[in-house]
Request: fold
Amino acid sequence: MRPRRTVEPPSRPVPQARINDYIRASQVRLIDDDGSQLGIKPTKEAMQYAFDKGLDLVEVASQADPPVARVMDYGKYRYEQEQKAKLARKHQTQINVKEIKLRPKIGIHDYNTKKGHVERFLNQRAKVKVTIMFRGRETTHPERGRDLLLRLAEDVQEIGQIESQPLLDGRNMVMVLGPTKNAGTKRDAENENIEQREEAV
Reply:
């Protein structure tokens, strides 16, 4: 009889699975390392079968009756699970939100400046939270803030789209814009044209 392989249980589950002597059930539904079904076996017999192949017995469905256990290389299994978790974290989109604040009675010059900031953020593929700040009696005319926000959304509609409609929040009104698929492409094209002109000189 070959000596049993000993595998240290992970200090942090990825997720935690019962293996070898940690399996509590007296019998398991056994799956071979190639995926073939071997039927219901006493747990000790299933463990010995795995050890004879130089592998581990891993409980993969503890809620089943009897639990399902599979013959596998647990070290390799853990590594693959860790890599999958790492890849999932890597692909999680980190939401980058910028904020621009406006007054409902903003002048045309300041408006164009703020709009330029919004366009720059959208071209950087960031979301933009646009906040209208009301003061004093301005709060009695929230429609002016809403009109300004919708005007801004229309002015940048080529590269930005409304993700959260204008909503009154206390003395402020907030709208969230997100980049469209065109965001950043115009800037890239302009940079390419500049490079081409420089090469032609």
User: Anything to note?
Assistant: Residues 159 and 180 are 5 Å apart (CA to CA).
